[in-house]
Amino acid sequence: MEVRYSVNPKDVKRFTTDELRDEFLIQGLFQSEIQMVYSHVDRMIQGSVAPTSPRELKVKAGENMGVSYFLERRELGIINIGGSGKVDVDGTVYDLVRTDGLYVGMGAKKVVFSSDDTKNPAKFYFNSAPAHKTYPTVKIERSSITPRHLGSIETSNERNLYQYIIPGRVESCQLVMGMTALEPGNMWNSMPCHTHERRMEVYMYFDLPETDVVMHYMGQPQETRHVVMHNEEAIISPSWSIHAGVGTHNYTFIWGMVGENQEFDDMDNIKIPDLR
Ligand SMILES: O=C[C@H](O)[C@@H](O)CC(=O)C(=O)O
Ligand SMILES: [Zn+2]
């Protein structure tokens, strides 16, 4: 598992394009083997797999988690963005079609991902955070969520925000997770933008044609930088950073947050003209 350490915003001011990308951008998602990045920002683990044979979530020998199984001290949120697949949690099998999610509580010993059709594999995207208590494992269907409708075509940011793992819907220790889909003709996500010093966040962009990109904006509000992102790439957003983007085409993204609180609306909103 790749390890990323946290960086200081004072240092990031002087980063080159490659340094920014090495530190925050996560590429090469959805391979047949499980891919994971362990971020020391709030100890969030970001992972993905497009299984062509069953793949078990394991702590590999030599990995510095200090536990005997992956979810011994962690919780897990999963969303499938590919073909139909299954997640087997200690013998209980959850069928996940495209956009279905699953919360897995702390203490589950064996989590196995598989695809129903290896020619059209499932694409499981996941976030995992340290946990202190077991909350029930719950399957989440996107159709059961009433989305928050945000933005408008006039400002090119009309979108539906689906909260999958959020207090009152699916309880968790700290993980909050969901998906935001832009309406056709709308290119901006999360603009007007915000930070939340209380939580870090990871974004994963998808449903973007291979010929298009998202210009993802990060950095302190008065020290912004962009990272050019392609389909099915993720980016780490430390608590001090904005996270917003504009595409050359509309797209969808999964967001996952961990940190001090689970108050979705606890954001430090930034007025657009105040950005630098
Ligand atoms: O803190 C909240 C996160 O940045 C996202 O949920 C925002 C988002 O998906 C959107 O505005 O479209
Ligand atoms: Zn945010």
Q: What this model shows, in words?
A:
With 276 residues, the chain is mainly beta. The chain has a single domain (10-260), classed as Sandwich (Jelly Rolls), CATH 2.60.120.10. It has two helices and 24 strands. It has helices at residues 9-12, 17-24; strands spanning 2-4, 25-26, 35-39, 45-49, 55-56, 74-80, 85-89, 92-96, 101-104, 111-115, 124-130, 138-140, 148-150, 159-165, 176-182, 188-189, 194-195, 199-206, 214-220, 223-229, 233-237, 244-247, 252-259, 268-269. Strands 1-3-4-11-6-9-12 form a seven-stranded mixed beta sheet, with no helix packed on it. The chain has a seven-stranded antiparallel beta sheet with strand order 2-21-18-23-15-14-13. It has a four-stranded antiparallel beta sheet with strand order 5-10-7-8, with no helix packed on it. It is globular. Residues 150, 159, 161, 180, 189-190, 196, 201, 243, 255, 267 line the site of 4-deoxy-L-threo-hex-5-ulosuronic acid. Zinc ion binds at residues 194, 196, 201, 243. One of its GO terms (biological process) is D-galacturonate catabolic process. Belongs to the KduI family. Catalyzes the isomerization of 5-dehydro-4-deoxy-D-glucuronate to 3-deoxy-D-glycero-2,5-hexodiulosonate. Its cofactor is Zn(2+).
